[in-house]
Design a protein that fits this description.
This protein is an alpha+beta fold. The protein has one domain: q2cbj1_9rhob like domain (Jelly Rolls, Sandwich), CATH 2.60.120. It is 26% helix and 20% strand. The strands form 3 sheets. Strands 2-11-7-13-5-4-3 form a 7-stranded antiparallel β-sheet. Strands 6-12-8-10 form a 4-stranded antiparallel β-sheet. A two-stranded antiparallel ribbon has the order 1-9. The structure holds ligand 6CS and fe (iii) ion. Ligand 6CS binds next to strand 5, strand 6 and helix 8.
Length: 306
């Protein structure tokens, strides 16, 4: 199987996770990398917590931020979504159907409040422990998932995209999704397949140029086949991240996840911070002809909080 991308042949390191195949059969590959790189002595998680994260690929931290803080961030999201000038910024992604704000990327550079949150020890010490190293922000965004017309995200592995399109070598990254509204089963709550992070699901289909211009609204390329989703669901089941505002979900970069549409009156808004190990910095994309913009995939790798 030959890759069709110039950058792939230039990438000086071997590709442990080939994907976006031009043809042939997409396979389920065993994850060669650990899930937890740190130890119980490195941070707030005890050995049982780390074992559970290793097994499931995710950890829920109830009440990570207080109700008062939730109000503060909720007001900040309102300020961002009503900033007329920001609406024309390329970092703002709107809902295809309603034109409402769907996400704001690189939000830590737009909001000082969220920049401070990304450096908060309650998050930083946990992700450093899971990744066993210093970390930097690969990506930050806020997702509004508005009521009535909020579109979900089809099943996918974030790492598959970050590997193919951003050049992330290994799945040594953790996402932190902080709920700013109550997450119910019925308002588009994030669904994960516990344990699926140990399988890398190859995807068929070459990455179109400037794919992010469509994929952030509706991802068509880089999504697994129904056959593979069925197999993973049969093996792992599906958990749903529900819980009160202020809870946080820390999940592995290669976790299979998705969310349904939200037709209820209740928005499902969150702050989404992606921490990458400073030992896993981006190279050239493994399966795309050019890099994505830095507001989606940062290449500023100074260790956060140092
Ligand atoms: O392409 C990305 O980087 C983004 N897309 C999705 C659906 N989840 C991860 C990430 O925010
Ligand atoms: Fe995702």
């Amino acid at each position: 199987m030959t890759l069709a991308y110039e950058t792939a042949t230039e990438s000086r390191i071997s590709d442990a996770y080939p994907t976006r195949l031009r043809g042939g059969e997409a396979r389920l590959l065993d994850r060669g990398d650990p899930t937890v790189w740190g130890t119980a002595g490195d941070g707030p998680f005890g050995s049982a917590d780390l074992a559970a994260h290793d097994e499931n690929g995710y950890t829920i931290v109830e009440g990570l931020i207080s109700p008062a803080e939730v109000q503060e961030y909720w007001a900040e999201l309102g300020r961002l979504s009503s900033d007329e000038q920001l609406k024309s910024d390329e970092r703002v992604v709107t809902e295809p159907s309603s034109g409402e704000v769907r996400s704001v990327f690189e939000v830590h550079r737009i909001s000082e409040l969220i920049d401070r949150l990304a450096r908060d020890p309650r998050i930083l010490y946990r992700v450093r422990q899971l990744l066993g190293s210093d970390v930097y922000l690969h990506q930050s965004r806020v997702n509004y998932m508005p009521g009535f017309r909020g579109n979900g995200f089809y099943w996918h592995s974030d790492f598959e995209t970050w590997h193919a399109e951003d050049g992330m070598p290994r799945p040594r990254a953790v996402s932190c999704s902080i709920a700013l509204t109550d997450n119910y089963p019925f308002n588009g709550g994030l669904m994960v397949m516990p344990g699926s992070h140990r399988t890398f699901v190859q995807c068929l289909g070459e990455t179109p140029d400037e794919h992010y211009r469509t994929s952030l609204q509706q991802q068509e390329i880089g999504v697994p086949s129904e056959r593979d989703i069925t197999a993973l669901a049969a093996e792992h089941g599906i958990d749903q991240f529900t819980g009160p505002a202020g809870s946080a979900l820390l999940f592995d970069a290669n976790m299979m996840h998705g969310s349904g549409n939200n037709i209820t009156p209740y928005p499902r808004s969150n702050i989404f911070l992606v921490f990458n190990s400073v030992e896993n910095t981006l190279v050239e994309p493994f399966a795309a002809n050019s890099r994505r913009p830095e507001f989606i995939a940062s290449r500023e790798v100074g260790p956060l909080g140092r």
